[in-house]
């Protein structure tokens, strides 16, 4: 399918498609006249990319995951594992941020907030 049709069906701009192609997230064949021709599965890949971005995945992460997902014997299970891993990393980061918040509160309450803490 041509770039305009894919952009319309995926609700993304043509520039976004070109950007994703430069990153290797999607691929197009070139016709004799130089037009991009995207395979039908590009639409599914774009919908995954948009959803993954919405769920907090960076494009670099998505790029690393895409090939694994498409070649997985059980794609649903593979997605489940990716989401579980992402959730664990988010929860770990939230714990780290909570500890940092607590330390900042303690330092603000002390007389000298930048005084090094004893270890």
TrEMBL record:
| InterPro entries given in the database record | DNA-bd_dom_put_sf, MerR-type_HTH_dom, MerR_fam
- Organism name: Pseudomonas mangiferae
Using the record for this protein, list the coiled-coil segments as residue ranges, or answer none. Answer: 80-107
UniProt keyword list: Coiled coil, DNA-binding, Repressor, Transcription, Transcription regulation
Read off the PROSITE patterns from this record. Answer: HTH_MERR_2
- Superkingdom of source: Bacteria
Per the record's keyword annotation, is Protein biosynthesis included, yes or no? no
Q: What would be an example GO MF term here? A: DNA binding
HTH merR-type domain location is: 1-68
Name of the featured protein: MerR family transcriptional regulator
């Amino acid at each position: 399918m041509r770039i305009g049709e894919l952009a319309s069906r995926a609700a993304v701009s043509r520039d976004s498609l070109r950007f994703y192609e430069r990153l290797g997230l999607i691929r197009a064949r070139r016709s004799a006249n130089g037009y991009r021709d995207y395979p039908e599965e590009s639409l599914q890949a774009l919908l995954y990319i948009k959803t993954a971005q919405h769920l907090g995945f960076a494009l670099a992460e998505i790029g690393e995951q895409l090939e694994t997902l498409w070649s997985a014997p059980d794609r649903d299970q593979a997605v489940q594992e990716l989401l579980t891993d992402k959730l664990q990393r988010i929860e770990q980061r939230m714990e780290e941020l909570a500890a940092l918040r607590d330390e900042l509160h303690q330092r603000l309450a002390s007389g000298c907030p930048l005084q090094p803490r004893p270890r």
